[in-house]
Amino acid sequence: MNSGEHYAIGTPGTPWAAAEISAWRARRQRQRRYADDVLSVIESFRTRFDIIEYGRLEYAAPSYPLFAVRSRAWNDALPIVLVTGGVHGYETSGVHGALRFIDRHAAHYAGRVNLLVVPCVSPWAYEVIQRWNPDAIDPNRSFFGDSPAPESAALLQLVAPYRDRVRLHVDLHETTDTDESEFRPALAARDGVAYEPGEIPDGFYLVDDSAHPQTAFQQAVLAAVAQVTHIAPADRKGEIIGSPVVAPGVIEYPLEQLGLCAGITQAAYKTTTEVYPDSPSATPEQCIVAQVTAVCAAIDYVLEH
């Protein structure tokens, strides 16, 4: 889609109303199953971890239960590490990276940190491979009081008792070609503004918190990930997705101000991973491994500092 074309739903220049949102939702089709891909795996963790149902989304029959996986030997004297995936449900490696981290690596940190892992924040979006929830709301711009996104509100409630005690939060995401072919054009149409094409970076990068940057931490995570997949270079403007590159592979956002998931705690260390699964130089397996590597490297750094 280029700037001279119109998105299939809505009238150019006019924000969507209920009819347009309904038309958009009617076009979404289930392409995979949360119960099969996510819930069945979480169920297999019950012998090793505490499983918490922290909410339920009543979007469809059956409804979507929301689960977090928590360290069984929780010790209030230890630092808390929060890992979230699937805030944008279409970003597959975030969900499966979180699940694989729990399965293969969480035990390594037993007795050293308290883990709270939420593998799939947005299960409806996971199933239909979309960025938004059924009301055309982006959960990752909705982490604030009285959130209009029930996915975001449920996670905020889960995290509230730990908010001031979390030491590290890693939020697992992807940047895909469909960001430009579908999601940003849909966003422009929804908001009644002109779509301006952007550029998709080829490679892995991180988003730091501009309010409390931790550049050395971000670079340590990237150094580990670079052993798995390539790091995204800056574009000709010295930017990645329109933001200045502050260190190789690192950009910054005001996380809390924008209502982003990575800004929901007072953690000293925060990062949002961004994997590029459409790269000709990366496989789906590499993307999952890159997510897991980022989580482990982040925890290792925090434990060392």
UniProtKB/TrEMBL annotation:
Transmembrane segments: none annotated. It comes from the Bacteria. Belongs to the peptidase M14 family. GO terms for molecular function: hydrolase activity, acting on ester bonds; metallocarboxypeptidase activity; zinc ion binding. PROSITE patterns: PEPTIDASE_M14. This is Peptidase M14 domain-containing protein. Residues 30-305 form the Peptidase M14 domain. It comes from Hydrocarboniphaga effusa AP103. Keywords: Hydrolase, Metal-binding, Zinc. Its cofactor is Zn(2+). Pfam families: AstE_AspA_cat. GO terms for biological process: proteolysis. InterPro entries: AstE_AspA_cat (IPR055438), Peptidase_M14 (IPR000834).
